[in-house]
Task: inverse folding
């Protein structure tokens, strides 16, 4: 090739690319990279925050639905207990004194105003006695509660009033009831009649107002109680006693609780939490669906504000990065422009133009030095090329003839190989399709632990794309850091001995995702011997939901539902652990045993709902009065315990007990009233040298508490062989 020809080629290339210089291309490339990166990060942050906001909103609505369901179940349990206790009263079982029976009914109705009617019907269906004398002497023989209540305890579903509607006071809402009835047997075992209670539906409305109206005021949520046939028993006025068929209601018939996004009957999208009542109660007929929903636009309003802020900040950062990229590119490409200008002059025939040696940075210095050397060698190279061209044509002809003969033989061999290859590729394609569409993640590795295969489910489960995972060590991709060395030793042991605890077994382990989070999986590993070594194949299955279910069951078994404190079972596990720590350190440990003075009076006067509220507030003050290292538990009813660890002396336990007494003397502000109660506390000290067992320590604290009650309540009593310091 002559210099004139080379110069012409360079000029042609320059004409084709004259619109933009190298610095412009680099600047455009960097700016585009910044734009794409910024846009990708903003899109990823937007998607994550949107998903997180929706998940939090659904979890909040599901919690509200569960609280309403729990309140309904507990309240129905209390009504169940009331009727059972009432049926055992001697005056009711004898059924001979209507006035005395009426007085009992009136007393219960005053304590529980939601009992709209309480009465006793004789075997012939006539009302013998009733609260306030309503319906006395009238026949209820055809009423379902009387017919079914003759055989067994009966709880009737939501229904309108029939006989009572004209006799009860006029209300803004029509009277609706839940019936409770039970047969009454006399002291001699003879059937005396049926005890019936009509629970007013205002009971459910009061529960909804008490538990969920604060959430409704704050978040604009709608609460509905729906019967199995789709009838709305409690909810928005325009929907009550009408049937609905929305997705959340259908889901509540299959699942005990949950949440979802759905399209409402008004055409708007809602986030809905749901729960199912009556699943763990003795009155299995009372199964309602509790739905708590909120318009998606309101639920996601906070996300929209965050989205605007993220977009604004992202745009500002992107502009700053583009400006910086433009400036840096211009500085870096300037030496290349000087070198390019010198090359263009030489290409046009200006042999006097020298290639400058640019020393701005190492790469451009190396390039300019190399180009200068190449120019000096150009003449020598061209002379050698001319001499070689003279004998090249003959040699090319000889070589061409030999290549033609070889090509014919090679084509025949290739045809046979292609046919075999096609059959092999078809089999491989079928196998890959099966593995790619498998429900479990499939991974194949060689005996060095390098990934050979990685199906679609593995990409979704572990976050690594196929092209990213293949060729990398499996331990670096999915094995948690602290277990990698154990994994490698296990592989080496199996290759040396053929024995391993993982091979051909199904095990549950944690796998590491690409985002750094650990994922519980069930893994099955097999292997195949090959001529080039072993091939290991593994199937991985996500068991996150299975483990979450196990953990939730364990947590529920150890937690008191009302107060959220550890329950009796958790207490019996934590006390031996605390005693063991005290023995190891060694240090003294204290146990406080207490209950609420006057708790039964609060229950009797204001009802069980007020009693439950008092228990919750008592537990909150108890937690505030002790240290974080101490353990507070609720055993049953109004009985509580506190495990005091790391005591320097018995006086420390007495000081904590006195602090609790002072805290409990302050009035408790309940929904029904403001009440004042106190507590009786028994103190027992565990000293490792005495080898006291768990039961003995609990008995000492319990005995001390009863001593405090006998001594006048609202005090602390000590139970030990030695007096406190």
Result:
């Amino acid at each position: 090739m002559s210099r004139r020809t080379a110069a012409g080629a360079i000029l042609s290339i320059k004409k084709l690319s004259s619109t933009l210089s190298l610095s412009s291309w680099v600047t455009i490339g960097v700016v585009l990279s910044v734009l794409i990166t910024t846009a990708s990060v903003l899109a990823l942050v937007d998607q994550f925050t949107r998903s997180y906001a929706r998940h939090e909103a659904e979890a909040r609505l599901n919690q509200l639905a569960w609280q309403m369901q729990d309140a309904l179940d507990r309240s129905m349990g209390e009504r169940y207990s009331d009727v059972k206790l009432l049926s055992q009263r001697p005056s009711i079982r004898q059924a001979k004194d209507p006035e005395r029976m009426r007085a009992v009914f009136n007393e219960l109705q005053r304590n529980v105003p939601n009992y709209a009617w309480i009465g006793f019907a004789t075997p012939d269906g006539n009302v013998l006695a009733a609260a306030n004398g309503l319906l006395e002497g009238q026949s209820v023989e055809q009423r379902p509660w009387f017919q079914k209540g003759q055989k067994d305890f009966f709880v009737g579903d939501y229904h309108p009033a029939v006989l009572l509607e004209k006799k009860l006071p006029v209300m803004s809402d029509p009277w609706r009831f839940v019936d409770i009835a039970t047969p009454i047997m006399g002291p001699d075992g003879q059937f005396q009649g049926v005890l019936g209670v009509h629970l007013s539906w205002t009971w459910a409305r009061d529960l909804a107002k008490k538990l969920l109206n604060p959430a409704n005021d704050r978040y604009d949520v709608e609460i509905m109680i729906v019967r199995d046939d789709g009838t709305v028993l409690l909810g928005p006025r325009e929907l009550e006693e009408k049937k609905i068929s929305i997705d959340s209601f259908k889901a509540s018939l299959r699942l005990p609780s949950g949440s979802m996004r759905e399209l409402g009957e008004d055409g708007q999208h809602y986030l809905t939490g749901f729960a199912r009542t009556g699943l763990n109660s003795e009155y299995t007929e009372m199964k309602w669906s509790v739905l708590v929903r909120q318009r998606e636009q309101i639920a996601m309003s906070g996300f929209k504000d965050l989205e605007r802020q993220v977009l604004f900040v992202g745009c500002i950062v992107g502009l700053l990065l583009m400006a910086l990229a433009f400036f840096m590119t211009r500085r870096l490409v300037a030496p290349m422009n000087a070198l390019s200008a010198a090359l263009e002059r030489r290409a046009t025939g200006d042999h006097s133009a020298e290639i400058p040696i640019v020393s701005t940075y190492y790469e451009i210095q190396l390039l300019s030095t190399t180009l200068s050397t190449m120019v000096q060698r150009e003449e020598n190279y061209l002379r050698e090329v001319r001499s070689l061209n003279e004998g090249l044509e003959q040699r090319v002809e000889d070589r061409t003839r030999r290549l033609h003969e070889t090509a014919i033989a090679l084509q025949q061999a290739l045809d046979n190989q292609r046919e075999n290859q096609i059959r092999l590729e078809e089999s491989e394609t079928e196998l890959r399709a099966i593995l790619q569409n498998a429900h479990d993640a499939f991974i194949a590795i060689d005996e060095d632990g390098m990934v050979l295969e990685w199906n679609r489910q593995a990409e979704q489960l572990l976050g690594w794309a196929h092209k990213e995972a293949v060729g990398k060590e499996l331990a670096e991709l999915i094995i948690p850091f602290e277990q990698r060395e154990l994994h490698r030793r296990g592989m080496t042991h199996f290759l040396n001995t053929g024995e391993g605890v993982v091979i051909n077994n199904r095990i549950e382990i944690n796998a590491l995702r690409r985002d750094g989070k650990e994922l519980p999986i069930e893994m099955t590993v097999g292997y195949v011997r090959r001529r080039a070594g072993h091939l290991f194949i593994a199937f991985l299955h996500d068991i996150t939901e299975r483990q979450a279910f196990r953990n939730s069951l364990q947590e529920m078994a150890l937690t008191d539902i009302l107060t959220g404190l550890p329950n009796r079972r958790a207490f019996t596990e934590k006390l031996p652990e605390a005693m063991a720590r005290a023995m190891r350190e060694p240090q003294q440990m204290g146990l406080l045993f207490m209950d609420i003075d006057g708790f039964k009076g609060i229950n009797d006067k204001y009802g069980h709902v007020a009693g439950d509220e008092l228990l919750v507030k008592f537990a909150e003050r108890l937690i505030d009065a002790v240290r974080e290292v101490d353990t507070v538990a609720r055993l049953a009813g109004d009985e509580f315990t506190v495990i005091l660890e790391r005591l320097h002396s018995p006086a420390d336990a007495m000081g904590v007990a006195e602090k609790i007494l002072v805290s409990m003397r302050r009035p408790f502000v309940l929904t029904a009233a403001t009440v004042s109660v106190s507590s009786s506390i028994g103190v027992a000290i565990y000293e490792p040298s005495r080898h006291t067992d768990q039961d003995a320590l609990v008995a000492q604290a319990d005995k001390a508490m009863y001593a405090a009650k006998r001594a006048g309540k609202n005090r602390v009593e000590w139970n030990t062989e030695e007096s406190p310091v």
In short: The longest strand covers residues 518-530. The longest helix spans residues 362-436.
